[in-house]
Amino acid sequence: KAGVTQTPRYLIKTRGQQVTLSCSxxxxxRSVSWYQQTPGQGLQFLFEYFxxxxxxxxxxxxxxxxxxxxxxxxxxxxxxxxxGDSALYLCASSFTGRDEQYFGPGTRLTVT
Amino acid sequence: AQxxxxxxxxxxxxxxxxxxLDCVYExxxxxxxxxxxxxxxxxxxxxxxxxxxxDEQNEISGRYSWNFQKSTSSFNFTITAxxxxxxxVYFCALSxxxxxxxxxxxxxxxxxxxxxxxx
Lengths: 112, 119
What we know:
With 112 residues, chain A is an all-beta fold. Helix content of chain A is 0%, strand content 54%. With 119 residues, chain B is mostly beta strands. In chain B, strands 2, 5, 6, 10, 11 and 12 form a six-stranded mixed beta sheet that branches. A four-stranded antiparallel beta sheet of chain B has the order 3-9-8-7, with no helix packed on it. Chain B has a two-stranded antiparallel sheet with strand order 1-4. In chain B, a hairpin with a 5-residue loop joins strand 10 and strand 11. The chains are: A mainly beta (112), B mainly beta (119). Chains A and B meet through strand 4, strand 5, strand 9 and strand 10 of A and strand 6 and strand 11 of B.
């Protein structure tokens, strides 16, 4: 069974640009969560999607948004990038959203 | 507010030594879930264990064991006979519980403990 996949794995963007990250969950999983990992703030929850609806949200500005498609794949978008958005963005999937989460390899975003 | 504290920033041991990673949590919830994840240099978080607040039994899985003590709000992780492949950052995490049971996917992570196992 394939694991969680994230694309792209590495990304370099310039301040002010926007970026879209993609996550494909494990087959059959309907919940996708996103986390940001930085050296200063550690691992922080961004949001969770279940059946195409945002079910939970962390404490991030509105520049961070996401969506989920009918096949459970999810995208995360960050608009007007700031230097502080440089981070490893991790996606996790679970079957119901109430059980163990399995993480993907992450997308490393560098904002210059 | 919920919080997870991993006071040990870095631990270095020699192969075959036993090592314990500490985790202390704070929550006002009576029902909650605790987790341990391993993050090797590749970056992917690997799920190790989930434990709910009503199950205080210790758990052993091969060389790994977990000690959950509600009285001290601790959920410690011990690796017996450590190996070089155990070198990674280990995260302890806490999640809220829904009214009907089960965990939300909003995990509160500790800052992690970097474990270096020397050959």
